[in-house]
C-alpha cells in the first residue's frame, strides 16, 4: 500500500474499533491499528476494569492480538482518540512496542490530525531483548 492510503486505512480501522472500547470509568475511548510487515492489519481498543491496573490499552490489545496469530514483525501502528491534540502511548505500551523492534507510529485524533514518529523516538535508550544477551 502507498503510505498515504496505508495511513488512511489504519486511521479508519482504529476509529472503527475505538467505538467498541470499554471505558466506563475514564470515558476516554482509544483505538489502535497495527500493520504487519506482510500487510495484515490487527486492531485493538482499550478495555478498562474497576481494578484500574487490570485495564488494557488499545495499543497492547492490537499487538497481543497480532502475536496470538503468530505475527512478530510490524511496519506501523496508529493510535487514535478524541481531543484537540493527538494521543500518545503510555509507557507500558511503548515498552511492549519496543519488544518487537523499530517501526513507524502514528499518533492521531478523531478529527484526522496525525503525527508520525518511531518507536525509538517514543522510548529512547530502551531496554530490549538484545540487552538480555549482553554479558555483564
Give the tally of β-strands.
5
In CATH, the homologous superfamily goes by the name Cytidine Deaminase, domain 2
CATH class: Alpha Beta
Largest sheet: 5 strands, mixed
> Low-confidence spans: pLDDT under 50, at least 5 residues?
none
Which band does the percent of strand residues land in? 15-25%
Assembly state (oligomeric): single chain
Helix tally equals 4
Question: What would the CATH topology be?
Answer: Cytidine Deaminase, domain 2
Give the overall form: globular
| Approximate helicity band | 25-40%
Distance between the termini: 44 Å
Tell me the structural class.
alpha+beta
- SSE sequence, one letter per element: HEEHEHEEH
Mean pLDDT, nearest integer? Answer: 96
Q: Give the count of structural domains.
A: 1
- Cα radius of gyration in angstroms: 15 Å
Reading side by side through the largest sheet, how are the strands ordered? 2-1-3-4-5
CATH architecture assignment: 3-Layer(aba) Sandwich
Description:
- It is a single chain.
- The chain has 136 residues and is an alpha+beta fold.
- The chain is 29% helix and 23% strand.
- It contains 4 helices and 5 strands.
- Strand 4 (104-109) and strand 5 (114-118) form a beta hairpin.
- The chain has one domain: Cytidine Deaminase, domain 2, CATH 3.40.140.10.
- The mean pLDDT is 96.
- The radius of gyration is 15 Å and the shape is globular.
- The chain starts with a helix and ends in a 14-residue tail after the last helix.
- The longest helix is centred in the first third of the chain and has 16 residues, at 3-18.
Amino acid at each position: 500500500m502507498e503510505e498515504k492510503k496505508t495511513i488512511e486505512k489504519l486511521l479508519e480501522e482504529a476509529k472503527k474499533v475505538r467505538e467498541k472500547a470499554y471505558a466506563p470509568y475514564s470515558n476516554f475511548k482509544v483505538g489502535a491499528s497495527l500493520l504487519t510487515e506482510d500487510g495484515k492489519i490487527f486492531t485493538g481498543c482499550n478495555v478498562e476494569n474497576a481494578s484500574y491496573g487490570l485495564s488494557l490499552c488499545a495499543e497492547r490489545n492490537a499487538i497481543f492480538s497480532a502475536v496470538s496469530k503468530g505475527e512478530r514483525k510490524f511496519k506501523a501502528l496508529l493510535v487514535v482518540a478524541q481531543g484537540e491534540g493527538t494521543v500518545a502511548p503510555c509507557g507500558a505500551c511503548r515498552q511492549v512496542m519496543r519488544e518487537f523492534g523499530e517501526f513507524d507510529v502514528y499518533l492521531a485524533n478523531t478529527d484526522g490530525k496525525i503525527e508520525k514518529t518511531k518507536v525509538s523516538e517514543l522510548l529512547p535508550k530502551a531496554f530490549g531483548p538484545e540487552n538480555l544477551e549482553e554479558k555483564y
